[in-house]
Amino acid sequence: MVNKALLIGRLGKDPEVRYTPEGLMVTNFNMATDEQWKDKNGEKVQKTEWHRIVTFGKLAEICGNYLVKGKLIFIEGRIQTRSWEDKDGIKRFTTEIVASNMQMLDSKGQSRADGASTETPSGSADPSSDDVPF
Questions:
Q1: Which residues pair with 9 in a beta bridge?
Q2: Of 21, 50, 106, 132, which is least surrounded by CB within 10 A?
Q3: For residue range 1-58, what is the model confidence (pLDDT) as tens digits?
Q4: What is the pTM for the complete model shown?
Q5: Across 70-112, where does the E strand assignment appear?
Q6: Which CATH architecture has domain 5-33+44-104?
Q7: What's the DSSP call for residue 22?
């Protein structure tokens, strides 16, 4: 059986960095992918899909240091769904991509370390951000 996800998209916001109780670094971030087509009237239609990405260890360190909102990246990983009970006892679910590989596709020199900002026009809304990186 195969569980593999390959995505190319842009970050919706800077990665959130945290650590497990054992001290393992973890980053979480959302990335947007989009597709475009023409409808039956010949008008351009764009659909944006948002993906939750999680990275661990050395890959999390790289993502935490170099990824910023709007950056174009390639992610390879597996799809994982997990559940938990919230503070009100309601069962919640989330589906995310656990990344095993990440490649930055933007030009070199754009990183959090050098303070580069990415300005992009606004598009459809990210559930966790006011701007869309497209």
A1: 73
A2: 21
A3: 999 999 999 999 999 999 999 999 999 999 999 999 999 999 999 999 999 999 999 9
A4: 0.75
A5: 72-85, 91-104
A6: Beta Barrel (2.40)
A7: T
